[in-house]
Amino acid sequence: MDLPVMPPVKPMLAKSAARIPPDMHYEAKWDGFRAIVFRDGDEVEIGSRSTKSLVRYFPELVEALRERLPERCVMDGEIVIARDGRLDFDALTERIHPAESRVRTLSERNPASFVAFDLLALADESLLDVPLSDRRKLLVMALSGVSAPVHVAPATTDIEVARRWFEQYEGAGLDGVVAKPLSLRYRQDERLMVKVKHERTADVVVAGYRLHKSGPVVGSLLLGLYDDLGTLQHVGVCASFTMKRRAELIGELEPLRMESASEHPWAAWTDESAHDSARLPGAPSRWSKKKDFSWVPLRPELVCEVAYDHMENRERFRHTARFRRWRPDRTPESCTYTQLDEPVGYDLADILGPPE
C-alpha cells in the first residue's frame, strides 16, 4: 500500500456542547464503529479509532469497499449495522469474535454498511490541509452514484435542518448531531468538531459498585431498573466522580454492602449462560478480555438520578450515565423502565435509502 496518507491514522474527534452551534456544516452522529478506510487498488485496510485493524471482522465490507471506492483513497466514516429500520450497536460488537467461522456467519446474517463523511486523500493528493467545505465536495464527487452498503453521510449547512435531524433521527438509533467548521482542516486525534447528543434523566437503583483502578475507592456505580416482572435488570453504570468523591462514596455505601452476592438479585452474574436471559453485570467482553469485572454487591435500597443520552435496544444505557443527585424520596421499586422516554420511530432507510 502506497498512499499520500498512510495508516495508522487517528480520527479527528469532537467535544460536547449543549446546543447546536450556528454557521457550521452539520451531520448526524452515527452510533457505530468509527473507521478510517484505506484503499490502494486491491488492498483495503480498515483502521479503528484506536488504529487497530477491523478487516478480519467485516469481510463483506472489505469486498464492497474494494468494488465501490475510488481506486486510491482514504476516507473517514462509520461502520454500522441496521436491523428493523434502526442502528443496532450490539450486532456490531458481536463481530469482534476470535472465530473466523462465526464472523463469516454473522456477516451473512447481518451485513454491515460504511457511511463515509470525510475524505483524507484521493489518488496522489493528501487532503488533510484542505478546508472541510472542499473536502466535502470532493467526497460527494468521488462517491457519486455509489450503492449500498457504501453511503455518503447526509449533510447540511442549514441549522434548522440540523435541529430537525436532531429530533427525528434518534428514532433510527442515531446519537445526535455533529457540527464542523467549514474551514476545518483534518487534524488527527484533536477535538475540533462539536457533538450535540440527547440527554435525559432517569431514577435508578444503585445495586453495587466497582473499585477504581487506582485503589480502594469507587470506580463506578452499578445501576438497575425493574422490568414488568419485577426483576431488577442491570442497565449500566455511572462514573466520572472526583477522586475525593470516590473515597467518600466508599464510606457512604458501606452500610449497604453485602458480604457476598449470593442473596443479591444479580447472584448469577458469574454464570455466562445466565446473561442470555437477564441483564447482569460482568458480562464477558471481547474488547477487554483481561479486564477485572468483579464488583461489590449492595442491598438495592438506594436510588439516584442519572443523565443518559439514549438506550441500546431499549434495555440498557448505551454509554456511561452521569450522576446527578441522590433521590431519597424515591423507592427502589418505583424505578422501572416505564419512566424512560421512547423516541419516535424513524426508518433508517429514510436517511440512507433502502438496502439494495
The CATH topology of the largest domain turns out to be D-amino Acid Aminotransferase, Chain A, domain 1
Supply the CATH architecture of the largest domain: 2-Layer Sandwich
CATH superfamily of the largest domain: DNA ligase/mRNA capping enzyme
The secondary structure category is: alpha+beta
| CATH class group of the largest domain | Alpha Beta
Largest sheet: 6 strands, mixed
Overall body shape = globular
Beta-strand residue fraction: 25-35%
- Rg, nearest Å: 22 Å
Head-to-tail CA distance between termini: 30 Å
Organism: Streptomyces fructofermentans
GO molecular function: ATP binding; DNA ligase (ATP) activity
Keywords: Ligase
GO biological process, one term: DNA recombination
Structure commentary:
This protein is of the alpha+beta class. The protein folds into 2 domains: about 15-200, DNA ligase/mRNA capping enzyme (D-amino Acid Aminotransferase, Chain A, domain 1), CATH 3.30.470; about 200-340, Beta Barrel (OB fold (Dihydrolipoamide Acetyltransferase, E2P)), CATH 2.40.50.140. Helix content is about 15%, strand content about 35%. The protein has 7 helices and 20 strands. It has helices at about 60-70, 90-95, 100-110, 130-140, 160-170, 245-255, 350, and strands spanning about 15, 25-30, 35-40, 45, 70-80, 80-85, 85, 115-120, 125, 150, 155, 175-180, 190-195, 200-210, 220-225, 230-240, 295-310, 310, 315, 320-325. The strands form 5 sheets. Strands 3, 4, 5, 8, 9 and 10 form a 6-stranded mixed beta sheet that branches. A 5-stranded mixed beta sheet has the order 1-13-12-2-11, covered by helices on one side. A 5-stranded mixed beta barrel has the order 14-15-16-20-17. The longest helix is centred in the middle third of the chain and has 11 residues, at about 130-140. The chain is globular. The mean pLDDT is about 90.
